[in-house]
Specification:
eight-stranded antiparallel barrel, signal, binds 2-acetamido-2-deoxy-beta-D-glucopyranose, mainly beta, isomerase, single chain, Lipocln_cytosolic_FA-bd_dom
Length: 188
């Protein structure tokens, strides 16, 4: 079974989906007065929504992953993600560059060299963060994703509800919203 488990939750998905370029600005707002310093540190990817057919096929096999967020000299963020892959803990780093107002970033794929937009839509810094991304896949499909990050591995029911409400407002249907199960590995 373990070999079938897909190890790409959270922003790691941006690399896997082969995002090519940023599309027109999405209809999302940013966390007002976003304080990047308070957003740093450890988060768990506990929910995601995506309208890619890839997620629909793989969603049963996705697990929670750990992200450690550190500041970059250019004002961006270093997201170091740790997840279980082939029975080992694997680590992948995504570098988000600042893209204008605080809380708005772009991710450039090291493979295609192209950018993807990332927004921190809502966070209380101590409990949860809702992120939204938008771009185009290598196959030319527009795709958007929403992520729930939580400081603990067991997000409160209110936080999960908040994520569902947010994702539905972005047009994600119920079958494209998943809460990722905890595992006993790689989250330390
Ligand atoms: C990102 O953070 C990781 C973990 O601390 C570190 O190993 C890596 O060098 C950092 N990458 C950059 C480009 O700063
Ligand atoms: C995903 O959503 C975007 C934005 O709403 C849309 O343009 C795209 O066609 C959708 N893709 C799929 C595979 O449904």
């Amino acid at each position: 079974m373990a070999a079938l488990h897909m190890p790409w939750p959270g922003l790691v998905l941006l690399g896997v989906l082969g995002i090519l370029q940023t599309q027109a600005e999405a209809q999302v707002s940013l966390q007002p007065n976003f304080l990047q310093d308070k957003f740093l540190g450890r988060w768990f990817t506990s929910g995601l929504a995506s309208n890619s057919s890839w997620l629909r096929e793989k969603k049963e096999n996705l697990y929670m992953c750990k992200s450690v967020v550190a500041p970059m000299a250019d004002g961006g963020l270093n997201f170091t993600n740790t997840f279980l892959r082939k029975n080992q803990c694997d680590t992948r780093t995504l570098l988000l560059r600042p893209a204008g107002p605080p809380g708005h970033y772009s991710y450039t794929s090291p493979h295609s060299g192209s950018a993807h937009a990332v927004w921190v839509v809502d966070t209380d810094y101590e409990d949860y963060a809702l992120l939204y991304t938008s771009g185009t896949t290598a196959l030319g499909q527009d795709t958007h994703m929403a992520f729930l990050y939580s400081r603990t591995q067991t997000p409160r029911a209110e936080v999960k509800e908040k994520f569902t409400t947010f994702a539905e407002a972005q047009g994600f249907t119920e079958d494209t919203i998943v809460f990722l199960p905890q595992i006993d590995k790689c989250l330390e």
